[in-house]
Amino acid sequence: MPGKRLxxxxxxxxxxxxxxxxxxxxxxxxxxRPASTIxxxxxxxxxxxxxxxxxxxxxxxxxxxxxxxxVDDLDVDDEAYSFGRSPGEVQEFHLxxxxxxxxxxxPKTAARILAEIxxxxxxxxxxxxxxxxxxxSPGTVSRSTSYLQxxxxxxxxxxxxxxxxxxxxxxxxxxxxxxxxxxSVWAHTALEGAEIFGLDTPVxxxxxxxxxxxxxxxxxxxxxxxxxxxxxxxxxxxREKARDRATGDASAR
Length: 253
Known about the structure:
Helices cover about 65% and strands about 5% of the residues. The protein contains 10 helices and 3 strands, in the order ααααααβααββαα. It has a 3-stranded antiparallel sheet. It is extended. It holds the Pfam family MarR_2. It comes from Lentzea atacamensis.
């Protein structure tokens, strides 16, 4: 049944079997569906303890009335659940990952998008895939991905008529570099303000403390940047050597 949408009867069975305590894999086996399909259906419609088949079917019908994407826009089998990964453990980690992003100040929808892309092995999803996975509007995806790109956490490319979003190997370095640049701006601005207000005034003293603090942070971050670039370059050379060896072995055979 791959590619065929869940019908109302199947959703009723999912609700009953969840109540009976069955896992996603067993429910998927009984419905002849990938476990990832069951997990995604439950997750987007209230979760394990609040899944309501009637409301889920109505929401699915409303989504179906929107613009239908091309078949190649979608991933039928979710990569996050391949390689024998447990759907329950994957879902639990997914929630923890979103929560960790939110705790660092990333808005919830942007955090969900970042987690979704992190949890596919190819490290990229199209705008259409994000709309369907998160059950949000294209405008919401556009705004949230723009926010993540401003932080240096995502890269976008036009893939035909679609926009596709990627994670790069140096994602954290670029995000960190953006943070370092902000710290440098704060340091210079605060020290300039201290001079304007006067170092012997309460405002001037406050701005001086701020400027000195971020100056120390910038120095430490520059040292860390140099260490990371050295480490990253060594790792890159090691990967290239391993790839060259693999290519040589294949040629020899």
